[in-house]
Design brief:
Number of strands: 21
Structural class: alpha/beta
Largest sheet: 6 strands, parallel
Shape: globular
Low-confidence stretches: none
Strand order of the largest sheet: 2-1-3-4-5-6
Length: 432
């Protein structure tokens, strides 16, 4: 029996899909296959933004004919969207051919739900409380030489635009002992880059172990590998964390620090709990201590009541904070959040005009920073081979993707590459 997993959203969902794959394999499903050849199709959904939700609805709906034609095919829907209030009922009503619905905290129970569905005709749904806990599911990792390691689940921040605390529950930290054991096992298995994951890694705490202490311990594990972490909330970003980053060569000096807006008024409405000035002070401190450090960010345009002046402050923040790159989004109301009830929702055409200008400002930064690499030699961790380009590819410590030719297979190896040209966020060069 074959399986097919459709993943939406961030790295946390990518890793969750690895756990789902591991569970399916232990349940007797043998390999990932094209959707038409699968015996079970699992949608690991995201509801953070409307686009991801709409894509999921469209892709689920497209399976109606396949479901009718292929007897025995199971369709399961999990992830954030399935756990959002009222969405399970909507899914069942809109797509009665769905077999299984499960939440983010029920991943480990998927094999039991499959067995139960084989005995019952009705939709099998398991969506109890909203508290997400460590499920113990062993991942079938598909991102070698990269590995994702959850350190927290859920979120306590309640940003006014964000639905995560409502669907994933309040924040809980994994035990430091289990995290370190997982990291050691991954390094011993040959993984070369470990990314620590959490909605807000900076608020991690297990007894006396906070995030800087955990990061220090992870980077002290023996072996040649890199360490990354995301996401950092600016309000909790500390000088102690910078000191740990500075202490260990293994820790990549690339910080993802979502600003969301450059306007203090909008930041207050977003309930972000820092000001533009405080954000810039922390960015400046990082660069004083680690001059080569780079910062990436998330930025939202079209938040309720955002004026042209507010937007201009976000545009100017791109230059003042000197972002290496940014994920940019048009605000989308999420039912159940405070922002969805705010007056002053921004017309779509205004938001589209603003995000086009924002993307151009971000791209200008990205192009300028990439050009500085030309003529230098960098170390990339080779991740894959691009069949279309006929080149190997891998990231350097500050996040740029490097493409190069090699006569020998080198996936999973650290490669020195001399950069000959840059194209946006990508670098091209020759293997030394």
């Amino acid at each position: 029996m074959n399986y097919h997993i459709v993943t939406y959203g961030c790295q946390m969902n990518v890793h969750e899909s690895e756990k789902i794959a591991g569970l399916l394999r232990r349940a007797g499903y043998t390999q990932e296959s094209p959707v038409e050849e699968a015996d079970i199709i699992v949608f690991n959904t995201c509801c953070i933004r409307e686009n991801a939700e709409n894509h999921a609805f469209g892709n689920i709906g497209a399976l109606k004919k396949l479901k009718r034609r292929k007897k025995g095919l199971l369709i399961a829907v999990g992830g954030c969207m399935a756990q959002e209030a009222g969405k399970a009922e909507l899914l069942i009503k809109k797509f009665p051919f769905i077999d299984i619905i499960f939440g983010t905290h029920n991943v480990a129970q998927l094999p039991a739900l499959i067995e139960r569905k084989r005995r019952e005709r009705k939709v099998v749904s398991l969506l109890p409380d909203r508290e997400e806990t460590e499920d113990g599911a062993e991942a079938y990792r598909t991102s070698y030489p990269n590995a994702w390691v959850n350190i927290t689940y859920g979120c306590n921040n309640f940003c006014s635009y964000c639905i995560v605390p409502y669907v994933r529950g309040r924040e809980k930290s994994r035990s430091a002992q289990r995290i370190l054991a997982e990291v050691r096992a991954l390094v011993q298995a040959g993984y070369k880059e470990i990314t620590l994951l959490g909605q807000n890694v900076n608020s991690y705490r297990d007894g006396d172990t906070d995030f800087p202490a955990l990061l220090d311990a992870v980077a002290s594990v023996e072996g040649k590998f890199r360490v990354r972490f995301m996401t950092s909330h600016p309000k909790d970003f500390s000088e102690r964390l910078v000191a740990v980053m500075k202490k260990h060569e293994k820790i990549c000096n690339l910080l993802h620090l979502p600003a969301q807006s450059g306007s203090d008024r909008i930041l207050t409405l977003m309930n972000r709990r820092y000001t533009r000035g405080q954000y810039l002070e922390k960015a400046a401190y990082l660069r004083r201590e680690i001059p080569e450090a780079q910062i990436t960010t998330d930025l939202i345009v079209g938040f309720p009541t955002e004026t042209e002046e507010d937007f201009e402050e976000t545009l100017s923040l791109v230059k003042e904070a000197d972002f290496s790159s940014a994920f940019t989004f048009i605000y989308s109301p999420r039912t159940g959040t405070k922002a969805a009830l705010m007056e002053g929702q921004i017309p779509e055409e205004v938001s589209k005009w603003r995000i086009a200008r924002l993307i151009e400002a971000v791209n200008e930064n990205t192009r300028r920073k990439s050009e500085r690499y030309v003529g230098s030699t960098i170390e990339v961790l080779c991740e894959d081979f691009d069949e279309k380009k006929g080149l190997y590819l891998g990231r350097e410590p500050l996040g740029r993707m490097g493409y190069f030719a090699s006569d020998e297979p080198c996936v999973g190896e650290f490669v020195r590459m001399r950069v000959t040209r840059a194209n946006g966020v990508s670098l091209y060069g020759e293997k030394e």
